């Protein structure tokens, strides 16, 4: 189930306060038998303040970024490392995956290198094998990352059947020329440009380690 936007009340608050102020001004005016100069000045000031609050609220609705809706990924918690890896490589993969899972919206990590799965970590589906489809093959051939911002709208999502079925976003980041770092997120459009740069840096470091 998607989580509601936690900032929605904050964005609506100026509109509510401004509207309430305008209503109270109107009630006060209707209940006043005579209009004094001081009351007229106060009414004008109140109308201006209410209008400013309402306008601010409307602007916030458009300008303030909304936190992407998140889902609870369906799958099992997994931490798999290929047995034939050296202790140094296992440590490096464990470190990199831990950073990604704890500092980004990433909820599952798969490292595919030289036709073999070296690591699976996070919430993952039952299937453990990775069969490269069109998207993964393109990353391996062109050595350029692919970010699927909202996985459900891409027909090619079927090739990611080793990830949870309700994975919201996927990044396929090349590891050198022979591998791919595959990340699954629990929210669409949730990786920032800074996240992408950081992920690229981690993949470059893994490429050196795995050579």
Helix count, DSSP H or I runs of 4 or more residues:
5
| Percent of sequence in beta strands | 15-25%
Main structural class = alpha+beta
Distance between the termini: 42 Å
Which residue ranges are poorly predicted, with pLDDT under 50 across at least 5 consecutive positions?
A: none
The H-and-E topology, N to C, reads as: HHEHEEHEEEH
Rg, Cα atoms, Å: 26 Å
How many strand units? 6
Mean pLDDT: 85
The largest sheet is:
6 strands, antiparallel
Shape verdict: rod-shaped
Biggest sheet, spatial arrangement of strands: 1-3-2-6-5-4
Concise summary:
The chain has 211 residues and is of the alpha+beta class. Helices cover 45% and strands 19% of the residues.
Write structural notes for this entry.
It is a single chain. With 211 residues, this protein is α+β, with helices and mostly antiparallel strands. Helices cover 45% and strands 19% of the residues. The chain has five helices and six strands, in the order ααβαββαβββα. The protein has helices at 8-30, 37-63, 87-103, 134-142, 193-210; strands spanning 76-81, 106-113, 116-124, 146-148, 169-175, 179-185. A six-stranded antiparallel β-sheet has the order 1-3-2-6-5-4, with helices on both faces. Strand 5 and strand 6 (179-185) form a beta hairpin. Helix 1 packs antiparallel against helix 2 and helix 3 packs antiparallel against helix 5. It is rod-shaped, with a radius of gyration of 26 Å. The two termini are 42 Å apart. The mean pLDDT is 85.
């Amino acid at each position: 189930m998607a989580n509601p936007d936690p900032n929605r009340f904050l964005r609506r608050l100026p509109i509510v306060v401004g509207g309430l102020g305008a209503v109270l001004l109107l009630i006060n005016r209707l209940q006043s038998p005579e209009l004094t100069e001081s009351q007229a000045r106060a009414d004008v000031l109140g109308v201006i303040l209410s209008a400013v609050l309402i306008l601010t609220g409307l602007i916030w609705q458009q300008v303030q970024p909304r936190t992407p809706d998140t889902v609870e990924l369906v799958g099992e918690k997994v931490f798999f490392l290929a047995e034939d890896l050296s202790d140094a490589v296992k440590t490096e993969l464990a470190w990199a995956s831990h950073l990604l899972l704890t500092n980004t919206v990433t909820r599952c990590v798969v490292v595919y290198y030289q036709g073999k799965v070296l690591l699976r970590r996070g919430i993952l589906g039952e299937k453990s094998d990775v069969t490269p489809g069109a998207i993964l093959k393109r990353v391996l051939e062109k050595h350029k990352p692919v970010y699927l911002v909202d996985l459900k709208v891409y027909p090619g999502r079927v090739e990611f059947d080793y990830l949870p079925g309700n994975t919201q976003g996927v990044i396929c980041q090349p590891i050198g020329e022979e591998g791919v770092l595959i990340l699954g997120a629990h929210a669409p459009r949730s990786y920032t440009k800074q996240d992408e740069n950081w992920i690229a840096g981690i993949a470059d470091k893994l490429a050196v380690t795995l050579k």
